[in-house]
Design goal:
Elements (H helix, E strand, L loop, with lengths): L2 H7 L7 H13 L8 H24 L8 H11 L5
Helix pairs in contact: 2-3
Keywords: Disulfide bond, Mitochondrion
Subcellular location: Mitochondrion intermembrane space
Pfam family, one: COX6B
Length: 85
């Protein structure tokens, strides 16, 4: 598997892996009709926006790594009590 693909499939690097898979699966199931998958795209976009804001905040606060690991993300989502996206 190429390095880029491995990085995109790594849950510690890609916080929106499940949303990405859901939108790809929707496209496959609906013969690539984008209108039918718009909710999946919106959820993926909101996921990326949320984790990007977390990453920027951590960078400003000097916390490394900038992107929380998968375990840290589970804790963050647990503390929020619901999915923010």
């Amino acid at each position: 598997m190429p390095l880029v693909t491995r990085r995109l499939r790594d849950p510690d690097i890609n916080p929106c892996l499940s949303e990405s898979d859901a939108s790809t699966r929707c496209m496959d199931e609906n013969n690539y009709d984008r209108e039918r998958c718009s909710t999946h795209f919106l959820k993926y976009k909101n996921c990326r926006r949320f984790w990007n804001s977390v990453m920027l905040q951590r960078r400003q606060n000097g916390v490394k790594p900038f992107m929380p690991t998968a375990a840290e993300r589970d804790e963050i989502l647990g503390a929020l009590g619901k999915m923010p996206y």
